[in-house]
TrEMBL record:
It comes from the Eukaryota. Involved in cytoskeletal rearrangements required for phagocytosis of apoptotic cells and cell motility. Acts in association with DOCK1 and CRK. Was initially proposed to be required in complex with DOCK1 to activate Rac Rho small GTPases. May enhance the guanine nucleotide exchange factor (GEF) activity of DOCK1. SUPFAM superfamilies: ARM repeat, PH domain-like. Pfam families: ELMO_ARM (PF11841), ELMO_CED12 (PF04727), PH_12 (PF16457). One of its GO terms (biological process) is phagocytosis. Residues 360-532 form the ELMO domain. This is Engulfment and cell motility 3. The keyword Protein biosynthesis does not apply. It comes from Gorilla gorilla gorilla. Keywords: Apoptosis, Phagocytosis, SH3-binding. Residues 1-33 are annotated as: Disordered. GO terms for molecular function: SH3 domain binding.
């Protein structure tokens, strides 16, 4: 057993004096220990020998401590010892007085200060550095901000910015009115270059900690930041920082958000979006979506109408979606939000039933009828009585596909409400020939195979609202926008026009009757959902792909998927599959661990659910450590050596998912948090005597499955995710088919054949020991 002590070796003597279980003894009366004390003739050292029953090994870590212009110290840190006592010993070793003026920081990453709260993050092999205490550092840097020299202020800000992300340092700065001093520099605006950019960055970092509410910002300060957004002549790094700060203000304070909305013209945001700078475009789009989310429905509609008049949709489609540079995750999220807000304008019509007493709505129904039966109606309705004319209109509405002679009864259902009527009118006006052909072709059939236009339109509108999540709150992490919605005006109505013609085509392919209506709609739903999942970039491409997905192709895809998911139920095959499972589960486990070794880029979500910070986590090649650390968007994947944080697998206790995770437990249970629950997981681990958590939000459902499976494998728990089930089923199906390849077209019996009884004698056996003559 190895003995650990911060005092060094007992004696500088050979180990030949080591007795049975006893300590090493000096070999002579003048032997010296490493501290320079003499040992007695009896061999007993005068200094206290470290006890064999010291603090548990789990509380002792071996670390290195650096200081500028000094030889590093290699020490064994007892986590049970107060941090002040540790600092005193470290300072004494370097002959430094006033240990209270110093503090320890992590040497890698963001150089966070070590406190009693986070000291459990120190692991074996950690490298720390001795630096100025955070209160003295804050005092010194804030003093530099008041320097008369511009260079002095710039140097102080350069040192302040990297430290501002540390909570300990931020509290010291804020308690010394650091935010007010930074605010003064920003409001004065004497230097529109690096000093202003550093001040905005430091101010935003300090506010991100949530110590001070964004609502406490003064109106003059916000207006000054708005000036930097509206100004042209300044350093290129200033506008993105100013836009990011205003986004935080808008999301956090409705009152100040209204001020930002009134002070920042939409035209100015359009100017920033047209600059070929991804960071500036992203921040401008972030502020734009924040302003739209904070506006009332009426204001939002006016704002979107104005933006569309200024060709924002065309610019996004050509210069952002089809840009040569890859789109960042944050921009993809903001385009998703913009698409959701666009579709959200349809919600009032979707929630409003038809009013049978509204003259305007009755006239719209008559326009719809006349567009289909204009010639027939005009010729047969002339000179008829009122009752006869009403009877004729009722019959024509039934031909149009309404379930009732009074179409208002069909449109009282919400959803889709008046949105279904809007879709039908749009189709009749913008595709009159296709509309007339649809209605007349089906109304003239007498074999009960007619496809009801109105009933199909109402159900198709409901289906599209469900697929596109019209009226649902915006997800705070989703990025699945459809590019074709930015390539087409009136995209929802145009999508309906494609869908209603697809319904008629599929109806004929299925040779459906009225009793088959629900089955046809299920097929149409599958056709639309499969095509939308391909994310076609234009409506024409969507039309081509969805029309190629015929009813026969849908059946083929269903059968293929069913064959992949279902195997034969013969007992011999089931027995074979059971024997193959352990080997294949081992293969899946190996793949999951390899995926963890590759690492994944995760996104941090702050209290306001902003997603502008990233961190990377991976498993070490020997499967003993989880290594992680922050990184910038767009940067290449870091090496293992550059990741500052480590979590030993041996310290991990359990894996938590969904609502059990501590970082989503308090977020509530609204619809907007459903996607967060589905992607959240946490690892609980031992941190000293307390239980701590490492929290994750997976970028996708697949990554969630891969990581939870891999972590379960590390913890020795079964991998029970849906992805594991699918992978196992696929591997079992493939392996079973390979094993049975030679038995193709050979029927496999339900029961094994019976074993015949043994023969009456064994005279037919050949004795190999008898040599032939």
């Amino acid at each position: 057993m190895a003995r650990s002590s911060s005092l060094g070796r007992e004696c500088g003597t050979p180990r030949s004096g080591l007795g049975k279980g006893g300590p090493p003894r000096p070999q002579g009366p003048q032997a010296r220990c490493t501290l320079g004390r003499r040992c007695t003739v009896s061999g007993k050292c005068r200094r206290p020998r470290p006890s064999w029953t010291m603090a548990p090994l789990r509380n002792v870590v071996k670390i290195a401590i650096q200081m500028r212009d000094a030889i590093p110290q290699l020490i064994q840190l007892d986590q049970a010892k107060p941090l002040a006592a540790v600092l005193k010993e470290v300072c004494d070793a370097w002959s430094l007085t006033h240990s209270e003026r110093y503090a320890l920081q992590f040497a890698d990453g963001h150089r966070r200060y070590i406190t009693e709260n986070n000291r459990a993050e120190i692991k074996n092999g950690s490298i720390l550095c001795l630096s100025t205490a955070p209160d003295l550092e804050a005092e010194q840097l804030l003093g530099g901000l008041q320097s008369d020299s511009r260079e002095g202020r710039r140097e102080a800000l350069r040192r302040l910015v990297p430290l501002a992300s540390d909570m300990t340092f931020a509290r010291e700065v804020i308690s010394r009115n650091g935010l007010q001093r930074l605010g003064t520099i920003i409001e004065d605006g004497d230097d529109l270059g690096e000093v202003l950019a550093l001040s905005l960055r430091a101010f935003s970092e300090l506010m991100e900690h949530g110590v001070v509410s964004w609502e406490t910002l003064s109106i003059p300060f916000v207006r000054k930041v708005v000036c930097y957004v509206n100004m042209n002549l300044m350093d290129a790094s200033v506008p993105p920082l100013a836009l990011g700060l205003l986004e935080s203000v808008t999301l956090s304070s409705p009152a100040l958000g209204q001020l930002v909305k009134s002070e920042v013209p939409l035209d100015r945001l359009l100017v920033h979006l047209q600059v070929m700078n991804q960071q500036l475009q992203t921040k401008a789009m972030a502020l734009l979506t924040a302003l739209l989310q904070g506006a009332s429905p009426v204001e939002r509609k006016h704002m979107l109408d104005y933006l569309w008049q200024r060709n924002l949709r065309q610019f996004i489609y050509k210069n952002i979606i089809h840009s040569a540079a890859p789109m960042g995750d944050e921009m993809a999220h903001h385009l998703y939000v913009l698409q959701a807000l666009m579709l959200g304008l349809l919600e009032p019509r979707m929630r409003t039933p038809l009013d049978p007493y509204s003259q305007e709505q009755r006239e719209q129904l008559q326009v719809l009828r006349q567009a289909a039966f204009e010639v027939e109606g005009e010729s047969s309705g002339a000179g008829l009585s009122a009752d006869r004319r009403r009877s004729l209109c009722a019959r024509e509405f039934r031909k149009l596909g309404f379930s009732n002679s009074n179409p208002a009864q069909d449109l009282e259902r919400v959803p889709p409400g008046l949105l279904a009527l809007d879709n039908m009118l749009y189709f009749s006006r913008n595709a009159p020939s296709a509309y007339s052909r649809f209605v007349l072709e089906n109304s003239s059939r007498e074999d009960k195979h007619e496809c009801p236009f109105a009933r199909g339109s109402i159900q198709l509108t409901v289906l599209l609202c469900e697929l596109l999540r019209v009226g649902e709150p915006c997800s705070e992490t989703a990025q699945d926008f459809s590019p074709m919605f930015f390539g087409q005006d009136q995209s929802f109505h145009e999508l309906f026009c494609v869908g209603i013609q697809l319904l008629n085509k599929t109806w004929k392919e299925m040779r459906a009757t009225q009793e088959d209506f629900d089955k046809v709609m299920q097929v149409v739903r599958e056709q639309l959902a499969r095509t939308l999942a391909l994310k076609p970039t234009s409506l024409e491409l969507f039309r081509t792909k969805v029309n190629a997905l015929t009813y026969g192709e849908v059946l083929r895809l269903r059968q293929t998927e069913r064959l992949h998911q279902e195997g034969t139920l013969a007992p011999p095959i089931l027995e074979l599959r059971e024997k193959l499972k352990p080997e294949l589960m081992g293969l899946i486990r190996q793949q999951r661990l390899l995926r963890l070794c590759e690492g994944t880029l995760f996104r941090k979500i702050s209290s306001r659910r902003r997603q502008d910070k990233l961190w990377f986590c991976c498993l070490s090649p020997n499967h003993k450590l989880l290594q992680y650390g922050d990184m910038e968007e767009g940067a290449s994947p870091p090496t293992l050596e550059s990741l500052p944080e480590q979590l030993p697998v041996a310290d991990m206790r359990a894996l938590l998912t969904g609502k059990d995770c501590p970082h989503v437990r308090e977020k509530g249970s609204g619809k907007q948090n459903k996607d967060l629950y589905e992607l959240a997981f946490s690892i609980s681990y031992d941190r000293g005597e307390e239980e701590a958590y490492l929290n994750f939000i997976a970028p996708s459902k697949r990554e969630f499955y891969l990581w939870t499976d891999g972590l379960s494998a590390l913890l020795g728990s079964p991998m029970g995710s849906e992805q594991t089930r699918l992978d196992l089923e696929q591997l079992l199906t493939m392996e079973t088919k390979l094993r049975l390849l030679e038995l193709e077209n050979v029927p496999i019996p339900e029961q094994p054949p019976p074993v015949p009884p043994p023969p009456t004698n064994f005279n037919f056996c050949y004795d190999c020991s008898i040599a032939e003559p």
